[in-house]
Specification:
Layout lengths: L2 H10 L6 E6 L5 E7 L2 H6 L9 H9 L2 E6 L3 H15 L6 E2 L7 E4 L7 E4 L8 E3 L5 H14 L11 H5 L7 H5 L12 H15 L4 H16 L3 H20 L10 E8 L3 E10 L2 E11 L6 H15 L6 E3 L11 E3 L4 H28 L1 H15 L8 E10 L2 E11 L2 E2 L5 E4 L8 H18 L7 E5 L2 H13 L7 E6 L4 E4 L2 E5 L6 H35 L6 H11 L2 H6 L2 H8 L1 H11 L2
Parallel strand pairs: 8-11, 11-12, 13-17, 17-18
Antiparallel strand pairs: 1-2, 1-3, 4-10, 5-6, 5-7, 8-9, 9-10, 13-14, 14-15, 14-16, 18-19, 19-20
Helix pairs in contact: 9-10, 12-13, 14-15, 19-20
Length: 597
C-alpha cells in the first residue's frame, strides 16, 4: 500500500469527536501533536487544501502515520495536548522557553509546622504555595512573616510525648523573642496553628484578617494597661499595612481572577499572566513561546493559559482575556471592555510588551543573527513582500533652490547600514529643481550600472517621497525591465504614509513598529548622506567663486591653488614668493594684492 493510500485509509477512520491527534514520520518519530473539536475535519484539513506556510507544507510531506485519542470535551483535549507536548517534545510544536525550576513557600506537615522556601516538592502532606517567579518575592514574604509571627526554625520532632518528657530545651531564638518555645511546652499547639492560619492568608494575599486580629489584640492590651505590648502589636500592623500599600492594588471587589494577554511577532509569542487575589496582584509572569508552524495568537494564548494555570496551580474560576478562547469547562471567561477590569487587561498587555522588549535587547547582543532574521520576517509581513528584504536601498534628493542638485543612495543589509555600498549622484540631465526628474535619473543610473556589472539587486527599494517620486522611480524600473522584480515603496514625511505602486491608499504602520523604524532609519540616513554631499559641493563652489572673482584667475588656476594650499585661508596668508612658485609672478601679484589691500 502506497503512503498516500495508507493516509487516506487512516483519515477515513477518524471520528467526528473532540480529541488529540499525533503525526509520526516514516521512522516512527513524533512530528506534531494537536487538538481538535472535530478530529476528522481538523486532520483532513492538512491534506485537502494547499498550505499557506512553508513549514506546514514540509510537515505534511513528512507525515507517514496518524494516531488519535478521543476525549469527552474540547477543554479535555486542551489539557491532554499540553501534557503530551511536554512529554513527547514534538519537533513542530511550539517551544516553551522557560522550563527552569521556581521557588515555593512550604508549610511543613508537622505538629508545629516550619515555614521556609524550597525548590523541591516532596509529597509528604506539606503545603506548597507558589511557584514564585522571583526569589526576591519569596524572601520579602518570609521576612514579613518572620517579623509578625514567632515561629520555630529547628527541625526537632516536637511530638507530645517528647515535649512532656522534657527532651528539649529552648534555644537562643527563644531568648531573642523569635520563638515562643513550643519545644518546652511554652506555646500550645492551638496558638501555633492560629498563627499558621494567618500566615496562609498572608501568602494568599489576604492581609485583612491578620490586620483585624492584630487591631483587636492591640485594643485588648491597651484596655489592660499593657501599653508596651500594645505598641509592639501596633508595629506589626504598620509592617502589614506598609506591605499592603506596596503591592499593586486593584479594585477590592475583584477577587481570585486570572488575567491573560498576548503580544506576538513573526517568531515568538509572549503570554502574560496576572493573578489577582483579594483586590491585589499577587503574581505576574510572562511565558515566551517559540512558534513552529505560524500559529495564531488564539492558539498560543490557549496553550499559554493551560500551561500557566497548571504550573502555578491556579484554581481561579474566572479569567479575563482580550478575545475568546476555549478554556476548562468550569472556568468563566470575561472579555473586559471598560473600567477597572479593562485597566487590568491593559496592565497585563503592557507587562508582556515590556518583557518582549527586554528579551529583544538581550537577543540583539547575544544572538544578532536571530535578531536580524526576526526583523526581516516582520518587514516581509508588514510590507506584504514576497521575500525577506535582506538588501534594501533608499534614495533621497537634495537641492537648495535648484543649486547643486545631488542625490544619495544608502544601502542596508540585514537591517544594518552597509556604508561601503553608499553612493552619491550629481544630477546631470535635469535643469533646475525638479525632484521627480532627478529621482528618475538616479534610479535609472543606479540599476543600469548594477545590471551591467552583474551585481546583486536589492529585494526592496525605498523612495523618500510620496506618490510623485514613486511614479518617477517606477518609470526607470520599467525601462530597465525590473518592474515587478524588485519591490518598491515610497514614504511621505508628513504622516509617515507608505505608498505602493498602483495603490492610491497609503499604508500606516504602527508608530512603534520595528518595520517603520527601519524605514525611518533608512530615510534619515539617506537624507544625512545626501545633505553632507550637497554641503561639500556648495562650499567647494563658494571657495572656487571667491578665487575666480580675482582678475586674471580662472577655474584652472583656482583649482591649482586649492590643490597646493588646501584652503582659501592659507592662500590669503601665503607670501608673494610662495604664490609665485605656484602660479607664476603675474598672477601671484594680482592674488597677493587682492588679499593684502
Amino acid at each position: 500500500m502506497s503512503k498516500s493510500t495508507s493516509l487516506k485509509v487512516q483519515l477515513s477512520a477518524l471520528p467526528n469527536n473532540p480529541g488529540v491527534y499525533q503525526f509520526y514520520d516514516a521512522d516512527g518519530k513524533i512530528l506534531y501533536v494537536g487538538k481538535a473539536k472535530d478530529l476528522k475535519k481538523r486532520v483532513s484539513s492538512y491534506f485537502n487544501k494547499k498550505q499557506e506556510y512553508g513549514k506546514t507544507r514540509v510537515l505534511v510531506k513528512k507525515i507517514d502515520s496518524i494516531k488519535h485519542i478521543v476525549v469527552p470535551t474540547e477543554s479535555d483535549a486542551l489539557l491532554l495536548e499540553n501534557n503530551l507536548i511536554k512529554k513527547l517534545l514534538p519537533r513542530y510544536n511550539v517551544l516553551l522557553k522557560d522550563d527552569k525550576s521556581y521557588p515555593w513557600i512550604c508549610i511543613k506537615n508537622e505538629r508545629f509546622p516550619r515555614v521556609f522556601s524550597t525548590r523541591k516538592l516532596i509529597k509528604d502532606g506539606s503545603e506548597y504555595f507558589g511557584p514564585y517567579t522571583s526569589m526576591k518575592t519569596v524572601r520579602t514574604l518570609l521576612d514579613l512573616i518572620k517579623s509578625l509571627y514567632p515561629l520555630r526554625t529547628c527541625n526537632y520532632d516536637l511530638s507530645e510525648e517528647k515535649i512532656d518528657a522534657g527532651k528539649y530545651k529552648v534555644c537562643l531564638d527563644y531568648h531573642l523573642g523569635n520563638c515562643l518555645g513550643p519545644c518546652e511546652g511554652f506555646q500550645t499547639e492551638k496558638e501555633y496553628h492560629d498563627q499558621i492560619e494567618d500566615i496562609r492568608q498572608i501568602i494568599k494575599g489576604n492581609l485583612k484578617d491578620s490586620i483585624q486580629t492584630f487591631k483587636q489584640q492591640m485594643k485588648d492590651y491597651a484596655e489592660e494597661m499593657e501599653f508596651e505590648k500594645a505598641q509592639r502589636v501596633k508595629d506589626k500592623i504598620d509592617v502589614l499595612e506598609n506591605y499592603q500599600a506596596k503591592s499593586t492594588v486593584v479594585n477590592p471587589k475583584i477577587n481570585n481572577v486570572d488575567v491573560f494577554t498576548i503580544i506576538s511577532d513573526e517568531t515568538h509569542g509572549y503570554v502574560n499572566f496576572l493573578q489577582i487575589s483579594h483586590g491585589a496582584i499577587i503574581r505576574s509572569h510572562t511565558l515566551e513561546i517559540k512558534k513552529k508552524l505560524d500559529e495564531t495568537d488564539e492558539e498560543l494564548l490557549q496553550l499559554g493559559i493551560t500551561e500557566l494555570r497548571q504550573r502555578f496551580n491556579s484554581t481561579s474560576k474566572e479569567v479575563y482575556l482580550p478575545f475568546p478562547v476555549t478554556v476548562e469547562e468550569d472556568v468563566r471567561v470575561t472579555l473586559p471592555k471598560l473600567g477597572d477590569k479593562r485597566r487590568i487587561l491593559d496592565l497585563s498587555e503592557r507587562n508582556a510588551r515590556f518583557y518582549r522588549q527586554d528579551r529583544l535587547k538581550q537577543i540583539k547582543i547575544t544572538d544578532p543573527d536571530r535578531h536580524a532574521k526576526r526583523i526581516m520576517a516582520q518587514m516581509k509581513s508588514d510590507l506584504r513582500l514576497s521575500e525577506e528584504p535582506r538588501h534594501i536601498e533608499c534614495f533621497d534628493n537634495s537641492n537648495i533652490q535648484g543649486s547643486n542638485p545631488v542625490a544619495a543612495c544608502v544601502v542596508f543589509k540585514d537591517g544594518k547600514p552597509s556604508k561601503k555600498d553608499y553612493r552619491h549622484f550629481n544630477i546631470k540631465t535635469v535643469e533646475g529643481p525638479d525632484d521627480f526628474a532627478s529621482m528618475e535619473e538616479v534610479v535609472f543610473r543606479r540599476y543600469k550600472r548594477l545590471l551591467n556589472e552583474e551585481e546583486s539587486l536589492p529585494q526592496l527599494i525605498v523612495i523618500d517621497g510620496g506618490k510623485g517620486q514613486l511614479s518617477s522611480a517606477l518609470k526607470s524600473l520599467e525601462v530597465l525591465g525590473l518592474r515587478g522584480k524588485i519591490a518598491i515603496i515610497g514614504i511621505a514625511k508628513r504622516l509617515e504614509e507608505i505608498y505602493f505602486p498602483d495603490d492610491p491608499v497609503p499604508l500606516y504602520l504602527d508608530k512603534r513598529s520595528e518595520s517603520l523604524k527601519i524605514i525611518q532609519q533608512l530615510r534619515n540616513e539617506a537624507h544625512r548622506f545626501g545633505i553632507t554631499h550637497h554641503r561639500n559641493k556648495r562650499s567647494k563652489g563658494a571657495i572656487s567663486s571667491e578665487l575666480v572673482n580675482i582678475d586674471g584667475v580662472g577655474e584652472k588656476t583656482a583649482q591649482q591653488l586649492l590643490k597646493s594650499f588646501k584652503s582659501v585661508k592659507r592662500i590669503k596668508e601665503a607670501s608673494l614668493e610662495t604664490l609665485t612658485a605656484s602660479v607664476g609672478e603675474s598672477k601671484a601679484k594680482k592674488i597677493y594684492k587682492t588679499f593684502h589691500k
